[in-house]
Every structure is written in structure tokens, then in C-alpha cells.
Amino acid sequence: MQGQVPKKVQRLGAKRGGLKVDPRMYPKTPCRGETYFEPRPGKKVLDVFHELEDPEADICKEFVREQNKLTEQVLEECPGRADYTELMTTLMDYPKTTAPRKKGDLVFYYHNTGLQAQSVLYSQSGAVDPKRMDETSQVVIDPNQLSDDGTVSLSSASFTKDGKLLAYALSSGGSDWKEVRVLGIEDGGKPVEMEDKLMWVKFSSLAWTHDNKGFFYNSYPEPSVSLDKAGTETGSNENQRLMYHRVGSNQKDDALIWEAKGEESQYMMGAEISDDGRWAVLTICKGCDAVNQLHLLPLAEDLALPQGSTFADAIAVIDDFEAEYEYVSNDGSAFVFKTNHKAPRSKVLRVDVADKTNFGTPEAWETLIPEDPADVLEWVSAMKGGNLVTCYLHNARHILQHRSSGTGELKRSLDELPVGSVAGFTGNADDDEAFVKFTSFTSPGSIFRLDVSGSSCKVEVFKETELNCPAYKPEDLVTEQVFVKSKDGTRVPMFVVGTKGAVGELRGESPKGAALLYGYGGFNISLTPSFSASRLSYILGFGGVVAIANLRGGGEFGEEWHKAGVGLQKQNVFDDFQSCGEFLIREGYCAEDKLAIEGGSNGGLLVGACLNQRPDLFACGIAHVGVMDMLKFQRFTIGHAWCTDFGNSEDSDEMFEYIVKYSPLHNVPSGSEVTYPATMVLTGDHDDRVVPLHSLKFIAELQYQQILSILENGEEPVQTNPLVARIETRAGHGAGKPTKKVIQQNADVYSFVAAATSTPWVLADK
Fold first, then answer.
1. pLDDT tens-digit profile of 290-320?
2. Residue 479, beta-bridge partner list
3. Which residues, in sequence order, are bridge partners of residue 724?
4. Can you cite a GO biological process for this protein (predicted)?
5. Which CATH superfamily is domain 96-273 in?
6. Is 503 exposed, middle or buried (0-12, 13-18, 19+ CB in 10 A)?
């Protein structure tokens, strides 16, 4: 049975919070024209703010200016803003280092001294020394030197197997568009800039052939905007190409390997090179579902891409979209793949691709590691000497195991690793040493060294991370995992983090504190324990509790859990989130008028839908870069890929009727019917993932329905809780944002939450 969207009924409104806005402060919305969008024949829907879809339109630019002006006026009334900024700056000011990665005779890692805008890529020669994993090592790439404002970021880097060459991708202003460049790496790790420059790269592989002559990458046709406007356009991303670039050549001479065309114009391809360098492993995806085709492109004896080779020369191992296949390793023609084929929590199979009868018949392949009855297999890494390291997800936290690659046999579970999440793993099939970084809600984590050279994996602490903040006392913090009964009886896990007093002592009494509930619930993404200086600042500074809900639609319990929150089941996600909110109040984690919710992207949709459906439950909502126009999302940039999770209002009357009932833009209640919680929507002008028009149209509709339409009728609005938008320049969907912008944004968000919930600053000594 599909998840039923609640019928519209008379609802209780939001309570008045501690932050009030005079209705006459709101700027006039753009003209509400009689424009309609017709996703299905006879299914016309008003699209009155369609002019906000064009970021270059004067009316849109003026709207953004006026919204930011209003938001700044509101934020000036938030008393904890300066205190929060100071505390988060202190909490962020600690050395951050990634797990080191071996390539040839060199070791590479990222390091940030604390408050640098972007992390720097460094190298060391020989055995890695944890004491020298800092700014004293050899700099390979310092993105802080590439822009004055820190908005050019290093989004990915791919080394040749011997570490002699590096292809790296740069993003400007947070856009998904990348510029790929190439470095030579001399002895000692010294970089030498090369002339190669590749443009209009997006959602790309960077996979070197083992002859060091070139690499595979993905690009799209050049959009109809100038380079300085890249990332602000809204046109659909189609016709992706897989290209091969030979070092030293011009991009226009790159070899076209594959292109998405015709009915398959929205497909995307990934490429990686097998451990032995003899195959290019090619996967074709449509949308974001965990399914793909699997093809193997043979490379030459000298490990080069043969001249004239294209996708037509590849072997189709799997040519349907029934399951997902991820390359693990191979020994000649014997390949090992992780797959969810008839295994929603995933398993590991082995197949001999020299036998053509194995093509398209995964049910006949050898099972190396069977599906676990409870835990989800997240990834598998092959290591030297016939060893595997596997990562399982157990109740939303990670567990590592050491196994045999020959039999799949479990050698041992690495139980000495802390409870938390893997924040980085660097191992490969040519080495018996790997590094893994673990983190948790209350600790930035440590790097551990794994040694599989013996019969049993040895684990030792390699590098610990320490915070230099007097207010941070990990012994005073506590994390609980609770299980919430959702509307249909499903048990939904939720982590609750706070100080011992806020989480434990207030439960069951008359709580006066506030809670911030965060959720996502989509795209098979799991929310596992991770360190966040911004949330920790909220906990320490405002004395609040932070709850992380593991909603259906995510990947915490495998593909069945994911599918229970997509398409015609999407309402289950909203029900789960609302049930978690009710639990926090009922169980005494917060007062009934002090519950705030937050989410980003698909989580922004979650916040928008839940604010519309249950304005009485929440005091405040924070929606980052949310998908708010659910009837048209598929028409902008990469939105078509999300139809595998959301469905498409243009595909059927049934899907249209389902989506239109929860789409945040189309379900904003009138201020004459119900008052709304304090709300802030956030977006960036270079967000070409979830384009800004979603947030702009939603806030325009929200302000009109709650405030301006009432004033137009000559009446006084009841709504006093603020309804604002924060639109940042030179910012995208979130990745690559410089540290200063991160601190500023979080200070604005959490001081707004605190003021809206009448939560004072409680930390005396920052």
C-alpha cells in the first residue's frame, strides 16, 4: 500500500516564537501572473512565480536583494549570533588531516591548519610520518592560492599508480562544473604544472590508464552561458560523454569513447581501471537508483588504450538495470563485484568473464560473501596477499572486518575500532597496509593503521585529533540511539546528542530546553555518526539537543528501507520525521514549543513538506537548498536523475496526483487558516544541483500566503514568526564552501533557531 499523503484539513497553527517580524517589513513579491504549468493533459497548476526561474532577470535580482536585506535585519535581532561565531571559530580551529594514501614511493594527504579556507594537498616520501603530517610537508596543490575569497576548491584528485602524474578537478563558487588540470610529480613530491586544461567537466570519473599516457573523464556539451556565469544556468544536463585525454594534447583532440544519445540522453557513465591495468570497468547509470549496466573495455598489452577504441569494443557483462555492480578486484579474467542482485543488503560475487555464458546471468556467479541477515555491506576493498577489508552498516554505524579474498571467510571483526563512522579509507590491492579514519558525533576522530600482512589484521592508532577549545569536554557529552514508532508502526532509529544534563536528567520531567531535529530520508544515503563543529556549537552554546533521524528512503537498512521511502511511498519519510519530532517532545528531550527541524537538498524538501503538514508541531524550520517545486524539478540541470527517487509528475496521472499533494511550493497554507513556524530557506547563486529557483519560489509563495495576501485584503496578518531567505553569492550546493562562509552561515542559522525558540546563550566561558 502506498504512503498516503494527508488530506487537507483545518489545522492548528504554529505557536508564536521569540523572534517577531512586523508584516510591513516584507518586500512585495513579484507579480503573480496567471501562468500555468501543465505536467499532464488537463492537469493545469498555477505557476505564478515562474519569473524567479531566470537568475538573470531583473525581477529575480531585485527579489534576491530585498530578501537578503530583510534577512539581515532579522538576524540583527538574534542575540546569540556573535557568541556562536566566536565559539564555532574556536571549535573549527584545530588541525584536520585525512587518511594518507600511498602512490608509488610517495604518500599523499589533505591537511588544514584549522581555519584555512580550503584544505591543502601534501606529499611525503617513503614511510609516512604522522608527526610530519602537517603544513611542513611538500605542498602539491594549495587551492587557497587560486582565489582571493577562497571559493575555488579542489574537488577531486586522481594519481597514476606510480604517483608520477596527477589529474585534479577545480570548482569555482561551489558549482558542479569542474576544470581539470594535470601535474607532474617529481622525486620528493614536488609538483610541476603542465599545460593540460579540460573544461565543462561534470559528474566525472578521473581514471588513469596504467601506461601513464592519459585518463578517462566525463564532460557535457558547453552550456549557453559564458564561463564566468557557469553554475548559474538552469538548463537540463544531458548528452554526457566519456572521453579519453592524452597528456600534453589539446582537449579538442580527446577521444570520444561513449555518448548518451536519443532516448538514453540522460544516462551517465563511470569509469575505473582494474587493479592489473588491463581493463576499463565501465558502468552506465540512469538516475540515482542503485542499479547499473556493467561493461569491460579491454586495454592493450602495454596497458594503453588502443587507438580508435570506443565503447563498441567493450564486453557487455550486464546490459540491464536490474541491480548494482561495483568492481572490487580481479585476477586475470576472474572478477569480484559487490552487488545487490537479489540481495537488498548486498553481497560479493565472483565471475569468470572469459566464459561468455556468465554474461547477463549473475544468479549463476559464485557467491564469495553472502548477504548478511541484518547488516548492510557498504563497501569492499581488496588488499595484498589475498585479503579483503569489508565495511558493514550496523544500526547506522560502521563495522570493519578482515576477510579472505579467496574464500570470503571472515578472519576477524575489527572490534577495537571506535563506535562511529568511517570518514576515509585508503587501501589498495598492491599493499598490505591501509589507513582508516573514524569519527563520531562528539569526536573529530582518529586515523588508524591496518596491517594485513599476517594471518590476522593488526590495528593501531596512527594519528589522533585534538580540539583546542576550553568549552569542549567530551566527558560531558552523551550520544543515545533510540527507536521511534512511526505512523504505520515501523521502527525508525534516531541518534540524540547533547550534554549529559540535557539528554538524560530532563527526560520525564517538564523540559524547558530546545531540540534540533535533522533528517534526509532519500537516495539510499545513510546518516551515520559524524563530527560537526556547527551542531556541537549549538549544543554547547545554547544548551540544545541535536537529534539525527534515520528515515526511510535512506540506506541504513539496505535497498528495502530505501524503496520504502521513494515514489508513491514518499509520505512515509515525512511521517517518520514527524513521529521523531513527537517522540522528542513526548519523551522530554525538549519543550513542545522549542522543536526546530533542519535538512538540506532532499532534506530541504523534507523540511518544507513537514512544515506545511504539521505547522503545529514545529517552532522553526531550516531548509537548505531544498527541492521545493516537485512538479518541475526534472526540467532543471540534473533534476531528471532524481526521478528514480521522487517519480515524475509528467509520467502518469497517479504520480501527478500524489506529488502535487505534498510538493512544498504547492501546499503552503494561507495565513487566514493557519500560522506558520519561523522559517529560513537557504540557497546559493551557483547551486547548479538544486537550482536557487526552488527556494526563491517557495519563499515568495510562503510570504504571499502568510503575509502579503492578508495585507492586500486590508486585514492584519496574524503571522509574526519570521519567514526569510538567505541567498549566498559565490556559493553552490554546499561542497567546497570556504571556512569563513561556513562559520558565517551556521552562526546565522543557529542564532536564528535559538531566537525563534526563545533559547538563550548559556555558555559563560567560550
1. 999 999 999 999 999 999 999 999 999 999 9
2. 497
3. 680
4. proteolysis
5. Prolyl oligopeptidase, N-terminal domain (2.130.10.120)
6. buried
Task: Find cell 523572534 and name the residue.
Answer: 19
Q: Are 118 and 738 in contact (CB under 8 A)?
A: yes
Q: Hunting for cell 533542519 — which residue is that?
A: 598
Written as nine digits, the cell of 619 is 517552532
The amino acid sitting at 505 is E
Instruction: Read off the C-alpha cell for 762.
Output: 548559556
Q: Which of 108, 327, 96, 118 is nearest to 205 (CA)?
A: 327
Contact 427, 437 (CB under 8 A): no
d(CA 153, CA 491): 40
- Span 475-529, pLDDT tens digits: 999 999 999 999 999 999 999 999 987 775 445 455 789 999 999 999 999 999 9
Domain ranges in the chain are 78-89+470-756, 96-273
As a whole number of angstroms, the distance between CA 637 and CA 625 comes to 14
> In the numeric block, which cell numbers belong to residue 552?
526511510
Indicate if 733 belongs to the active site. yes
Distance CA 40, CA 702 (A): 25
What pLDDT is stored for residue 10 in this prediction?
41
Distance CA 179, CA 117 (A): 19
Question: Strand 433-439 vs strand 421-426: parallel, antiparallel, or unpaired?
Answer: antiparallel
Active site residue 405: no
Kindly state the cell numbers that stand for 212. 601513464
Its pTM surpasses 0.90: yes
Q: Catalytic one among 155, 329, 601, 695? A: 601
List the catalytic residue out of 688, 733, 748, 751. Answer: 733
In the predicted structure, residue 93 carries a pLDDT above the cut 60: yes
DSSP 267: -
Rg of the chain's alpha carbons, rounded to an integer?
Answer: 26
Could you please report the per-residue DSSP string of 657-709? HHHHTT-GGG-PPPTTT----EEEEEEETT--SS-THHHHHHHHHHHIIIIIH
Q: 138: which residues sit within 8 A by CB, 6+ positions away? A: 122, 123, 124, 188, 189, 190
CB of 177 closer than 8 Å to CB of 688? yes
Q: How far apart are CA 732 and CA 231, in angstroms?
A: 8
117 is written with which cell numbers? 579556507
Beta-bridged to residue 158, according to DSSP, are 167
Residue 440 amino acid letter: S
Q: Which residues pair with 459 in a beta bridge?
A: 450
Assign domain 78-89+470-756 to its CATH superfamily.
Alpha/Beta hydrolase fold, catalytic domain (3.40.50.1820)
Instruction: Tell which residue, 158, 98, 103, has the closest CA to residue 126.
Output: 103
User: In angstroms, rounded to a whole number, what is the distance separating the alpha carbons of residues 599 and 626?
Assistant: 8
Give the pLDDT confidence of 372-413 residue by residue, as tens digits. Answer: 999 999 999 999 999 999 999 999 999 999 999 999 999 999
Q: What is the rounded distance in angstroms from the CA atom of residue 714 to the CA atom of residue 735?
A: 45
* Dihedrals phi, psi of 72, to nearest 5 degrees: -65, -35
Strand, coil or helix: what is 543? coil
Q: How far apart are CA 289 and CA 292, in angstroms?
A: 8
Catalytic residue among 645, 687, 688, 748: 687
159 C-beta neighbours (distance < 10 Å), count = 23
Residues 6 or more apart from 35 whose CB is under 8 A from it?
Answer: 46, 47, 48, 50
Query: How many whole angstroms separate alpha carbon 724 and alpha carbon 600?
Result: 16
Residue 571 — φ and ψ, nearest 5°? -60, -25
* 345, 335 Cβ separation under 8 angstroms: no
In SS3 terms, 596-641 reads as EEEEECHHHHHHHHHHHHCCCCCCEEEEECCCCCCCCHHHCCCHHH
Residue showing cell 536583494? 65
CA pair distance 637, 634, nearest whole angstrom: 8
Report the alpha-carbon distance of residue 213 to residue 255 in Å, rounded. 13
666 catalytic residue (yes or no): no
